[in-house]
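Lecture 7 notes: from sequence to structure.

We start with a single chain of 229 residues. Read the sequence below before looking at the structure.
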Amino acid sequence: MSDVAFARINSFASVAQQTDVSSGEHVLEIPVSEFQGLLKELADTYNLIAETIRDAGILRGRELASLTEDNSRALKAERSPTTKFLLLNAYIRQLLTKIREALKSRLSPEAGRVIQVCSKIMARAIQIIDYIKTYGEGDPTGKRDISLDSQQARLLFSGKSQEVVSRRDAIRAMKRAEMLWPALTCAHRPNDGRMTMRLTIPREDLGYGPEMDYCSYWQRSNRRIAVSL
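Now the structure, written as tokens:
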């Protein structure tokens, strides 16, 4: 996130200057740094909603990326911090409208079969969750904890296609699985000089896994989707 380019704001006006004599209205003045913080928080909110829309498959990756890039260009071109603030609010409402329309179509009885589109990382995370559920329930060893390390995850992802998955991408999927299923713990394997990442879950928590409502997974554009000020 780049720093916001602000016009100069006088935040050291006297008490007498804090009231508009002609209109009788009070004037609120805040430090530029505080307004920068407000804008950054609002931009973070936009980006979080955009990621949710992307992961839920509400908009195609390229379509959402194009929309966000257009919004970023408009924000960078605007010099007034107040107008930036109003623009960000409008963009957030725009995304919320997309979510509302998607929910209406999915909840409609007339709606057909829903295909949920997700990123490759999300698809792999769900694959990990499905594997851990299946393996844990069928594991005859009776071990207290069920585990899956990054090397095992890479083998899982390769499958019959023999796709080569990097250790970094495997760990990203493991961390996403941890977010989807809080009972999972993603951490380095103890006393391992190679610092191998491993997912673990207590056996008693296997029955409380998340239910994934999905039909198929399509890879979307890997372009970064985020507004910048």
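The chain has two domains: 16-107, 120-208. Keep this in mind for problem set 3.
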